[in-house]
Each structure stands twice: as C-alpha cells, then as structure tokens.
Amino acid sequence: MSVFERVRLYCFSPGPFARGRDPVEMVKAQIRGGADVVQLREKAMTKRERLELGLGLRALTRETGVLFIVNDDVDLALILDADGVHLGQEDIPLDHARTLMKERIIGVSTHSWDQIQKALSGGADYIGVGPVFETRTKEDPEPRVGLELLSRLGGQCPVPYVAIGGIKGSNIRSVVAAGCHRAAVISDILLAPDIEAHCRTLRSILA
C-alpha cells in the first residue's frame, strides 16, 4: 500500500501568510494538529532561502514522521532528501522527473479529466484535483472545477487524490460528501487564530 494512502490533511509552509511569524513554528503547529504532509511551497523566496527553510522542515518532518514534499523543484527535493516532489502542469514532465526521483513520491496538479488520465498513465503517485472552489492563493488560478470532478473519481482512481483550491472549514464537508477524504488547505489554516486547533478540526472531518 502506498504511504500516501494514509494521508488526510495536506499542509504547507506559510509563504506570504507568515506575516512576520516563524515559518518553522507555524509548521510545527500544523503537525501537532494532525498534518499528514507538509509541502515546501515558497514562491517568493530565492532558492537559497528555500533551501535554508527546507533544511529546517526536513529535520522537523523526519523527527515527527510526517511526509515532506517540495513544490515544483526536483533538484531541491533531492538536495533536501525529501519524500517527494509536487509538479504543476507547467513544470518538467513527469517522466523526466521520475528519472531523477526514482522511487520517491511524485504528485501532479490536475485541472481536468484529460490531465488526470495523463498523470495516471504517466505514473503519478498521487494527484491534486482542483481548484475545487475559488482561490486567491495562486496569482493566476485555473478555472474552478467544482465538486463534480471529485465525484467522478470516487471509487475508480487507482492512486490517492487530494482536493485542492479554496478549501476551508465552511466547505470541507462537501468535499467529503463528494467522496474525497484528502484535502490540501493553505490560507484557511495559516490565517486561523489557532493553527493547531483548526488543523485538528479539519483532520477530524476528513478522517
């Protein structure tokens, strides 16, 4: 069984939501609240800055037994000895990434049924499906796919799939109702007054 099968709550480094706070402490709070995955996702940092933060997060995730994924950057994932990398549609093709990543996890963001089929045929270990709801986390988000694509995947996707995009406490139950028990949540967690408590609440809904 894939180690990703047990994943329910997929969390992130804080990026623009740090707002002067310590990013490692913010990730620690997410892990205490039940994060199963932490992705290093820092669009505004230099590669050296991402490396420095990544070293801290790699040590933390290894200590706590949480999966550690690097967004977009295969080189950095290998340098950090991450568990895997997550690729967008504009990143290097999955087959080229596999040559370097070997047996490590490769996830792929998908925004349509055709993209899902291509990721599956290419050997993705998991797929992100979305954006399910409107999101401001990305500067130029893909068109919203809604819950229909999640429902269509129910019971027939051969690898784990994660709902992404605009997911928060007020709509996460509809994701579960559509048959998906894995969700990637960014701003709703990172802007919560109590990150740990909010993670715990979301994780309990996904379980």
Strand content: 15-25%
Tally of alpha and pi helices: 9
The CATH architecture term is Alpha-Beta Barrel
Low-confidence stretches: none
Mean pLDDT: 95
Reported for the largest beta sheet, the result is:
8 strands, parallel
Approximate shape: globular
Task: Sketch the topology as an H/E string, one letter per element.
Answer: EHEHEHEHEHEHEHEHH
Our count of domains comes out at: 1
Q: Can you tell me the CATH class?
A: Alpha Beta
Q: Might you state the CATH topology name?
A: TIM Barrel
**Portion in helices:** 25-40%
* Order of strands, widest sheet: 7-6-5-4-3-2-1-8
SSE class: alpha/beta
**Total number of strands:** 8
CATH superfamily: Aldolase class I
Radius of gyration: 16 Å
Distance between the termini: 18 Å
Short summary:
The protein has helices at residues 23-32, 47-64, 74-79, 94-101, 113-122, 148-153, 172-177, 187-190, 195-206, and strands at 9-12, 37-40, 67-71, 84-87, 105-110, 126-129, 161-163, 183-184.
